[in-house]
Structures are given as C-alpha cells and as structure tokens.
C-alpha cells in the first residue's frame, strides 16, 4: 500500500513521458492533478487505518541488496505519517496551482511527479540507504526545477543548492557507513539499528558519526551557519518549486533527526544536545532578524523558514538535555517539533504561492514596488492577511499549537534557551505584519508597476490559485482549532522516541 | 598442472579470434571485412559463455602462474563485455575502413593482454601481460594516422616503454631477493628479504601497473590519447586497461607484498593525488573529451581506495570489483555519446539534445550523474562499497577526501549535463548532429546496465565475495 502511494506519481510520470511535448499542456497538468489527488486520497486512507497506533503500520520489508545489508523497508508511524500527509497535500496544491502553465510543461510535470515519489519515499523509508537514495534524488530533481524553470540568477543559485546539499548528503552517507560498520550483524535497517543503538558505548566514534549525520541534516534544514544556499535558491526558484523546497525538502533535514540521529545515536545526541539547542536558538534569532532586513518578499519568507526550522531544532535539542526526567515536557517538545514541521509546510507553502501570485502580476518580488493591493485584489489581500497572522503563531492556527508546545516543552528542560528564543516570535510577527502592510495597504500608486510582461491592471487571485491555497489554510485552521486528530498519532510517536533516547 | 586449457577458454577464444582474424583479413577485400568484426564479437561472446559455465572457484592453473578466482572472472566479464561495447561504438568510424580487420585484431589482443594482466600470479606472466595489453593500444591510439592521433600514440608509447622497463627492472629485483617469480613463493620469501630492496623493487613494479590504471603520477598520456585518438579507442584505453592494472595491483598488495611495508599509506597518497588532480584539472577542460579524460583519472583515485585497504578490510576486494564493473559500463556509456555526436566537441555543442534526441539526453543523464555517484546507478553503490571499505579499514579521512572530491566533480559533470537540457542555440538548429545509430545503441545498453546493476545489485553482489588469490 505504501509502495503504491510512493510510486504512483512515478508511474504516472512514466506513462506521460512517451507523449510528445507538442500535445496540449493541459494533458500534462490535468494528469498531474489527478495523480496528486489520487495519491492524497490514498494517504488519507493510510491515515485513517493508522489512526493512533503506537508502532509502525503498513510495514513492508523486502530484501533488496542483501549482500550490502540494504533492504527495501518501508512503514509509517506517528512521526512520519504527518509529513507524508503534508507532502501529498502540498504536491496537490502545486499541481492545482500550475494547471494553467504553458511554458515547458512536460518536463516540469514529470520532474514534480518524480520529486513527489522521492519525497514520499523518504518519509516512509526505514532503511538508511533507501533514505539516502531518495534524499539524493530529491536534490537532483530540485536542481533541475530551479535551473530549468527558475528566474533571475537561477543557474548559479541551483548549483549552489546542489553543491551544498550534495555535500550534506555525502556527509550523511559517511555517517550511515559508520552506523553500518558498528552494527553486528552489519545492517542499514533503521528499525534494527534503533533496537541495537550500536554506537552507544563508543564515545569518539559515536560523536564523529553524529557529527557527519548532523552536518548533513543541518545543511538541509538549514540551520545557521549552513543556511547560505537557501535564500538564493528560494529567490530564483519557480513559486511551486519554492513551495516544495520549503514545505517538503527542508523537512527532510528535521525529519532525519527524529528518524535517524536521535533514535540511532541516543547517547551522542544527549551529549551534544547543548550544541543543537544553541544552533536552534541562533537560527531562530538570526533568521528572524535577517528576514526583517529583507526587501524581497520571497527572500524574506525564506529567512523566516530559518527561523521556524530553528524552533524545531531547539525543541529536538532540548529533548536531549534532561535525560530521564521531565518526560512529559520532552514529549511535548517532540510533538511540537513535528507539528511545527507540518504547520510550516502548510503556511510557508501558502506564502510562497502568494509570492508566485505576486510575481505573476507585478513581475517582481520587491516589496517596495507594491502598495495598496487590497483595493484591486481584495481576495489576495485577505488570504495574505490570514496567512501572515497564522504564520507568526496567532491562536487558532497550526503555528500557535506548534510553537506553544515547543516553547512549553523546552521551558522545562532548557529554560534559558526558550527564553532567548521567545523574542524571535515577536520579530517574526513584526516583519510579517510589515510585509502585509507594505504590499496590501497604503496608497495605490498612480500607475501600477509594470515591468516587462506584466499586465497593466492588477488582477485578483484566479480560481486555481485560490483552490491551491485554501485547503492549505483550511488544514492549518483545522490543526489550530481541533488538533487532536493530528496530535494523537504524533504523541504516540513522540513517546516512543523519548523512551528510546532515555 | 592442476588444470588444462579449459580454465583459459576466454583467453584462448580471444587469441584465436585475433589470429584467425588477421589471417582472414588479409584475404578479404578491403571494403568488406565485416567477417573479422563478426569473429571478434563471437570470440567475446564465447569467452563470456565460458566464464559463466566455469566450474566453482577458485583455482590456480598452470603451476600457480595464473589464478582463476572471483577477481579474474569478474574482470573477464567486464573486459569482454566492454570489448563488445567498444566494437559497437567503433562501428561508425571503422566500418568499411581499409584497415578494419587490423582494428579488431588489435582490440582483441589488447583485451587478451588485459585478461593476462588481471589473472597473472607470476611476475613474468605479469610483465608479458603488460606488454600484450600495451602494444596493441599504442597502435590503436594512432589508428587514424592524423597528427593529433600520432602525437598521442607516440606519447603513449614512450611513457609505456619507460614504465615497462621500470616494471621489468622491479620484477627482476624481486626475483633476485625473493628467489622466485611466483606470487605464492614471493609471499613467503619477501618478508625476510632486505626491506629496502623490496621497497624499491615493488615501487618499480607498481609504476607499470599504475601506468595501466592511468593513475597519478603516470597519467600524462591519458588526456592526449583521449583527445587525439578515435572516440571508440579513447573509450577503450580509458576503461579496460584500468581493470587489468587495478586487479593486478590488488593481488600484489593483498597477498604478496610484506604487510608492514607501509603500502596503505602510499596508496592513500596516490588515491588522494589521483582524485584531486583529476578533478581539479577536469574543472577547466574546454572539451568534453578532455573532461572525460580527467574524470577517468579521478575515478582511478576512488578505485585506489579499495587497494589502500586491501589487507585491512574484508570489503575491499568485492568493492573494487563492483566499482570496476560499474565504472567501466558508465564510462563507456558517456563515451558512447561522444561517438554518437562526433562533431560536438564542447559542452555547449550539446545544447538542444534533450529537445531533439531525448533518448541520448537520458543516456547522458544516467551516465554523468552515475559518474558523480548519484543513486540508484551502479557507481553509487560502487562508491558506497569503496567508502565502506575505507572507513572499515581505518582510512576514514580518505573517505572524507573522496567525498569532498565527489562534490568537486559535480561541477564539471554538470557543466556538460546542463547544456543538454537547454534549448538549441538557434531555432533552426536541431541540436548536435548525430553519427550512425550503433553508438546510440551502445550508449543505451551501457546506461541500462549501469542503472540495472545498481538497482539489481542484490542479485549478483554475493557473487563477488570470494578469496582473491595472491
């Protein structure tokens, strides 16, 4: 069943590939929407069956390369299922958003279907090599998305993205090799490694392996000071590319911590948790402050991602600080971290879709070029206002649930860090409100900005754009008001994780 | 004699094919020499069949001068399969050529020499294999008789002769201090021989094998031959001799040279030099052939990782064999596209390929990303196994060096790959002009094998486990 969910997009891509690129672009975009919708329905079925089960469900295990200790092992639990869900929803949103696309549609659609398989595969993988294969292929796919369909300085930005994250992935691979060699018998299986935690008694080696894995994941997350690939990649990527990059690919980093780094290397994690917390706090503050200084809307959203991901890292680090005590607080922190991943995926997804809508109308992301859009584009302004409030964590939306749990959990084990991170929320609120204010409110300029190709009149959101955004906002609202359906499975996974790291 | 000629059927097939081809070729009309090509193909196919029908491993043959073990068998498959691909790739440039039969005879002899090199467990046979694997290739490098080809052949020949002489000197010295040319005896006698002499002799012997492998510091001929020779010949000389050279190196380091001789450190340095030099030089190559030439040097660096930990890690042998297979097929696939588009010299010339020839673009995508080491291609798994062996053998830092080099290599492979997906320079321009379709077929086969060998590695990876005879 999970394999069907994972490989359905790839199968659709294989079916669409032989069609000549001269056929109507609608064939591809509608095919994409259908594939993404079917996949989202399948994920819903998986979710309903999984319910609040404590362990892994839909587990499937087939020997793949037994000689190398590699197996095809997939399954979902409370930590991965929410990310599988958000991935399928975001890809559906991207498909709907792109339905009217005309330029280079075939390659674009095929790439995104390929990417969807990689992303879903990564979140369901229970084998380190399988995880790595998807991790690497998602980088290749995203590279071509940015380089092929990006704007501005797309080539160099895409290369920078590729190099950074590829370096990260290889560091990850070295760490995996260390785990493989330490395990007896040698294996890459995550479940078996989590049971054995082979590096528990080996201080330096364990630290080195954690360092390699941590570096790889932190680059991907990204955390200060390894984040420098991200702003250019986001600025130059196409809007839906940014949605996937921020909404799904960044989660691969944080998910890697809860799936691999923490349960497989619990001792080393506890030992270096202070460093993780420190990086988290710095990222929270740095991301917020740098975002405040941005003039480019998309770049600003990119930096808020550094800030939001910083909370996740902070929460996960704080879990390692108080071994054997404050069980409840630590479960709360992990739950908050996973919820934050989901929430950030949904809300940043909408923000990037809004950025795309903005660019389609004004031809630029520079906030200074816009003013008073609430007049001609009230729906746009309304959606943006809601998203902005949701994004900085107003109660009633998912961001609040996530950040509240993170800070409440971290306060028990790392009070100083939590206190230091608190102003980050304030700065984020200020900068997002200022962006809203600058773009949507104020005087309308006498002549609307019109660089090349932009229409003279600023039009409101089109139906397909709105259809792409509203479900994401709806999901965020649902999580914010009735969170139990999401929190129950996450909590069971979090209890398990906290139990594993002692 | 433990076993007769049946153990050497692949070698016999190649020798027979070459000799009969030579005779046949002199009776055939100049423009219709296809039977010679057919015979070469049959010889390779027969050799492959003999490999798969062989009795269980391992066994030394001919008084312990030749080993039929997992390394020999894998090397045979790679060399014979690679030779078949090269014959396919060369079809466009040598078909109906007046010297077509000579070409195929030389290819078979070169392949035969490589087989001798990789199976030899006796110094005199090793030297004979070296000469047999080298001399036909010198002639092939200058096959087109144009100035660049001649220059390449001359450089190749001079360096080959130099390192050949050095290698013979080393073999003589080892014979002197070890009182035998057989590996089995040398393994016993060398530890008690004067260490200084052994070290000098061994390094001299290694020089020849490093030359065959195209490793630093004997790499100078590679760029010249790759740029100057016919593309199919370039594919041949950058791929198959490496198999012979590296397997022979592995045998010596694994089982013959004294374990306390500091060999791992030497090979770690050589590996680092090959990777780094190859990668840095490849960055600025204006032509795709130059890029591939230096990429092959850097790939030898990764392969040398396995030689470095030959003694320390049980993973080293299988890792080397798997990587050789993966590298050979992926590299041949990339060269197939060079043969397919002979007029496209720089990466820029490949613009519009994805639009007009999506199949060729996919082959390049698979092979170039494969050479980077992107999953799920075979080279990825090869790198994984080699890195694993290095970490396991206590050379984690070398694995880190290899990782950094892999990231650097991304630059130049992408420099070629990106134009493939860009639109052609002008609207009327239909992308690069192709030569005949056989190179495309060869590329397709190579890319498919590269992918399938990665995804389906579970099926045959266990076959690579087994003792490598000294």
Automatic annotation (TrEMBL), chain A:
Domain NADH:quinone oxidoreductase/Mrp antiporter transmembrane, first and last residues per copy: 125-421
Subcellular location: Endomembrane system; Membrane
GO biological process: one example: electron transport coupled proton transport
Sequence intervals crossing the membrane: 79-96, 108-125, 131-149, 161-183, 203-219, 239-260, 272-293, 300-321, 341-360, 372-394, 406-433
Example GO molecular function: NADH dehydrogenase activity
Source taxon at top rank: Bacteria
A Gene Ontology term for the protein's cellular component: membrane
UniProt name for this protein: Oxidoreductase
Organism, as annotated: Actinopolyspora mortivallis
TrEMBL record, chain B:
Subunit: NDH-1 is composed of 14 different subunits. Subunits NuoA, H, J, K, L, M, N constitute the membrane sector of the complex.
Protein localization: Cell membrane; Endomembrane system; Membrane
Residues covered by the NADH:quinone oxidoreductase/Mrp antiporter transmembrane domain: 120-409
E.C. code: 7.1.1.-
Sequence intervals crossing the membrane: 12-30, 37-54, 74-91, 103-121, 127-144, 156-177, 197-216, 228-250, 262-283, 290-308, 320-339, 360-382, 394-418, 439-464
GO molecular function annotation: NADH dehydrogenase (quinone) (non-electrogenic) activity; NADH dehydrogenase (ubiquinone) activity; quinone binding
Function: NDH-1 shuttles electrons from NADH, via FMN and iron-sulfur (Fe-S) centers, to quinones in the respiratory chain. The immediate electron acceptor for the enzyme in this species is believed to be a menaquinone. Couples the redox reaction to proton translocation (for every two electrons transferred, four hydrogen ions are translocated across the cytoplasmic membrane), and thus conserves the redox energy in a proton gradient.
Family to which this protein belongs: Belongs to the complex I subunit 2 family.
One Gene Ontology term, aspect cellular component: endomembrane system
Catalytic activity: a quinone + NADH + 5 H(+)(in) = a quinol + NAD(+) + 4 H(+)(out)
Gene Ontology annotations of biological process type: ATP synthesis coupled electron transport
InterPro entries assigned: NADH-Q_OxRdtase_suN/2 (IPR010096), ND/Mrp_TM (IPR001750)
Membrane disposition: Multi-pass membrane protein
Name of the protein in its database record: NADH-quinone oxidoreductase subunit N
The keyword Transmembrane helix belongs to this UniProt entry's keyword annotation: yes
Keywords on record: Cell membrane, Membrane, NAD, Quinone, Translocase, Transmembrane, Transmembrane helix, Transport
Pfam families: Proton_antipo_M
């Amino acid at each position: 069943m999970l394999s069907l969910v994972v490989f359905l997009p790839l199968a659709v891509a294989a079916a669409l590939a032989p069609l000549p690129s001269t056929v109507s672009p609608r064939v591809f975009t509608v095919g994409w929407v259908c594939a993404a919708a079917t996949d989202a329905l399948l994920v819903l079925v998986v979710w309903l069956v999984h319910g609040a089960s404590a362990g892994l469900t839909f587990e499937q295990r087939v020997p793949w390369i037994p000689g190398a200790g590699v197996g095809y092992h997939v399954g979902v639990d409370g930590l991965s299922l929410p990310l599988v869900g958000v991935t399928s929803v975001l890809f559906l949103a991207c498909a709907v958003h792109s339905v009217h696309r005309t330029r280079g549609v075939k390659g674009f659609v095929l790439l995104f279907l390929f990417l969807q398989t990689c992303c879903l595969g990564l979140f369901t993988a229970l084998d380190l090599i399988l995880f790595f294969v998807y991790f690497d292929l998602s980088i290749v796919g995203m590279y071509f998305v940015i380089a092929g369909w990006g704007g501005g300085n797309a080539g160099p930005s895409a290369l920078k993205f590729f190099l950074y994250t590829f370096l990260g992935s290889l560091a990850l691979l070295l760490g995996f090799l260390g785990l493989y060699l330490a395990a007896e018998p040698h294996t890459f299986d995550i479940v078996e490694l989590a049971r054995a935690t082979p590096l528990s008694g080996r201080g330096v080696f364990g630290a080195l392996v954690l360092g390699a894995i941590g570096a790889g994941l932190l680059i991907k997350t990204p955390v200060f000071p390894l984040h420098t690939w991200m702003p250019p990649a986001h600025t130059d990527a196409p809007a839906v590319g940014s949605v996937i990059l921020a909404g799904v690919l960044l989660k691969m980093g944080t998910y890697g911590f809860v799936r691999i780094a923490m349960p497989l290397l619990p001792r080393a994690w506890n030992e270096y948790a202070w460093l993780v917390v420190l990086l988290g706090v710095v990222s929270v503050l740095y991301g917020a402050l740098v975002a405040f200084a941005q003039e480019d809307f998309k770049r600003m959203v990119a930096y808020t991602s550094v800030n939001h991901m910083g909370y996740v890292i902070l929460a996960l680090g704080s879990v390692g600080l108080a071994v054997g005590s404050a069980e409840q607080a630590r479960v709360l922190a992990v739950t908050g971290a996973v919820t934050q991943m989901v929430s950030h995926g949904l809300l940043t997804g909408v923000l990037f879709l809004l950025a795309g809508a903005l660019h389609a109308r004004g031809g630029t992301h520079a906030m200074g070029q816009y003013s008073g859009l609430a007049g001609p584009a009230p729906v746009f302004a309304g959606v943006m206002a809601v998203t902005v409030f949701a994004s900085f964590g107003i109660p009633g939306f998912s961001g609040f649930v996530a950040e509240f749990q993170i800070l409440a959990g971290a306060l028990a084990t790392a009070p100083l860090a939590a206190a230091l991170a608190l102003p980050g929320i304030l700065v984020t609120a200020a900068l997002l409100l200022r962006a809203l204010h600058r773009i949507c409110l104020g005087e309308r300029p006498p002549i609307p900005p019109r660089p090349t190709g932009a229409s003279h009149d600023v039009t409101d959101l089109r139906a397909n754009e709105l259809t792409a955004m509203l479900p994401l906002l709806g999901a965020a609202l649902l999580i914010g008001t009735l969170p139990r359906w999401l929190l129950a499975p996450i909590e069971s996974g979090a209890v398990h994780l906290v139990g594993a790291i002692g | 004699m433990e076993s007769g000629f049946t153990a050497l059927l692949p070698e016999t097939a190649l020798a027979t094919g070459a000799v009969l081809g030579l005779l046949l070729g002199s009776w055939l009309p100049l423009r219709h020499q296809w039977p010679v090509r057919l015979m070469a193909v049959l010889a390779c196919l027969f050799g492959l069949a003999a490999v798969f029908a062989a009795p269980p491993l391992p066994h030394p043959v001919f008084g312990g001068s030749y080993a039929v073990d997992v390394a020999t068998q894998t090397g045979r498959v790679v060399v014979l399969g690679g030779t078949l691909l090269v014959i396919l790739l060369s079809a466009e440039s040598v078909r109906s050529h007046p010297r077509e039969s000579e070409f195929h005879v030389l290819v078979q002899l070169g392949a035969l020499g490589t087989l001798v090199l990789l199976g030899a467990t006796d110094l005199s046979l090793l030297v004979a294999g070296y000469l047999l694997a080298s001399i036909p290739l010198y002639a092939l490098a200058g096959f087109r008789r144009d100035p660049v080809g001649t220059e390449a052949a001359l450089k190749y020949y001079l360096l080959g002769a130099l390192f050949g002489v050095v290698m013979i000197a080393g073999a003589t010295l080892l014979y002197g201090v070890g009182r035998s040319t057989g590996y089995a005896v040398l393994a016993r006698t060398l530890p008690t021989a004067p260490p200084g002499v052994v070290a000098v002799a061994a390094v001299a012997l290694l020089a020849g094998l490093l030359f065959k492998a195209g490793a630093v510091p004997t790499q100078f001929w590679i760029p010249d031959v790759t740029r100057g020779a016919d593309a199919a010949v370039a594919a041949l000389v950058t791929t198959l001799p490496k198999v012979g050279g590296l397997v022979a190196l592995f045998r010596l380091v694994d089982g013959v040279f004294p374990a306390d001789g500091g060999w791992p450190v030497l090979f770690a340095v050589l590996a680092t030099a090959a990777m780094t030099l190859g990668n840095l030089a490849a960055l600025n190559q204006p032509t795709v052939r130059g890029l591939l030439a230096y990429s092959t040097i850097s790939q030898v660096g990764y392969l040398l990782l396995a030689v470095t930990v030959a003694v320390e890690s049980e993973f080293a042998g299988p890792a080397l064999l798997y990587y050789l297979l993966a590298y050979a097929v992926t590299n041949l696939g990339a060269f197939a596209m060079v043969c397919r588009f002979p007029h496209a010299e720089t990466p820029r010339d490949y613009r519009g390929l994805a639009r007009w020839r999506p199949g060729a673009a996919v082959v390049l995508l698979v092979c170039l990303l494969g050479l980077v080491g992107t999953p799920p291609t075979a080279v990825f798994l090869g790198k994984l196994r080699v890195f694993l062996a290095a970490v396991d053998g206590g050379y984690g830092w070398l694995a880190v060096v290899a990782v950094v080099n892999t990231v650097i290599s991304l630059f130049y492979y992408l420099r070629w790959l990106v134009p493939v997906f860009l639109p052609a320079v002008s609207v009327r321009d239909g992308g690069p002009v192709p030569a005949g379709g056989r190179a495309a077929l060869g590329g397709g086969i190579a890319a498919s094998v590269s992918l399938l060998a990665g995804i389906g590695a579970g099926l045959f990876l266990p076959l690579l486990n087994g003792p490598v005879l000294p």
